[in-house]
Design brief:
Glyco_hydro/deAcase_b/a-brl, Polysaccharide deacetylase, TIM Barrel, alpha/beta
Length: 328
């Protein structure tokens, strides 16, 4: 049995202080998405190069509501580069961007950033608008979605079904447990309101920070050794799919929320390179695919398997992260 591995990339601009002080700050898109430093992209461009080098595909969940501020063009250029590289483009939604209209902030009607807090009809309309945007960018209507902040509920899945979306990766129990207990799942495939959900894979972290709590499979949060060990454990336990989350801005370092001092995050970049290299070297056990591809090829019967991290690897990762944050 091959374990399906889905690298999901939440690709989004940053409000960057514009809600708090709109006269002083404006949102940013090129810095968090493309992240250019030393004459090259250290964020999305770096990811494209790494995936191409290893012959791998990821699912890029691209935020669409921000076009109320930026228009289609800026993100559209980055989507063109992703599609030219054979990457999968699907829908991501941070509804707070709907607080803008034609580039201007409507301070009297701020919209929540959590899809689960919107009226169902309002969410359906935002989803359909987002699907239209993805179709304009790619020529293909999206089938899959991830909510911003992992904010989801049964109402969100109902809205997705009405909008015509079939697959989701809305749930990350370690970060934002949904209000309904039935939705608090940490792996596998599940059907909610007719939508097939593949949650971000979570595991029990033995410490030293957050001991015993669930932790997501996230490139910036785990060392390369941890990621590989958990993938091996998932395969040995016959887990059908592993869903990993990342963002382009994880591969850069910045000095502040305005993205000053932008530079490469060499440690996190090396983690992605090692992860993709490991998967490329083990095609007999792992198949890196899109979210839709994974959903269509697994049964959903292997979703209850628990994964546990290593205490030693967790300690080493903590030291590694501290050193990277403070000294590199």
């Amino acid at each position: 049995m091959k374990t399906k591995v889905v690298l999901t990339v939440d690709t989004e601009p940053s409000i960057a202080g514009a809600f708090d002080d709109p006269d002083k700050y404006s949102p940013l898109i090129h810095e968090p998405v493309w992240g250019e430093a030393d004459g090259k992209s250290q964020a999305t461009g770096f990811m494209i190069e790494t995936l191409k080098e290893h012959g791998q595909i990821a699912t890029f969940f691209v935020e669409t509501a921000h076009t109320a501020y930026f228009s289609d063009a800026p993100m559209g250029r980055y989507v063109e580069r992703l599609t030219a590289a054979g990457q999968d483009i699907q829908l991501h939604l941070h509804p707070c961007w709907a607080s803008y209209e034609n580039g201007s902030l409507n301070s009297g009607s701020r919209v929540s950033d959590n899809c689960s807090e919107l009226a169902e009809d309002q969410l359906v309309e935002l989803l359909r608008q987002g699907m239209d945007t993805i179709e304009r960018w790619t020529g293909n209507r999206p089938t899959s979605m991830r909510t911003g902040n992992f904010a989801t509920s049964l109402c969100v899945f109902r809205a997705m079904e009405k909008a015509g979306l079939k697959y989701a990766s809305n749930i990350c129990t370690a970060v934002a447990p949904p209000p309904e207990p039935a939705l608090q799942v940490a792996s596998g495939k599940h059907v909610f309101a007719g939508v097939e959900e593949l949650p971000v894979t979570c595991f029990a972290d033995p410490g030293p920070i957050g001991r015993g709590r669930l932790k997501p499979m996230q490139v910036t949060a785990l060392s390369a050794a941890e990621q590989i060990a958990l993938l091996n454990q998932a395969h040995n336990k016959r887990l059908e799919a592993v869903i990993i989350v990342t963002h382009p801005f994880e591969y850069i370092k910045i000095n502040n929320f305005r993205y000053d001092g932008l530079r490469a995050n060499k440690l996190v970049q090396s983690r992605l390179q090692k992860l993709c290299g490991f998967l490329a070297d083990n095609p007999d056990r792992f198949d890196m695919t899109s979210l839709e591809g994974a959903a269509q090829s697994i049964t959903g019967n292997g979703g209850a398997t628990d994964l546990t991290g290593s205490t030693v690897k967790s300690v080493l990762r903590t030291v590694e992260n501290f050193t990277n944050d403070r000294f590199l």
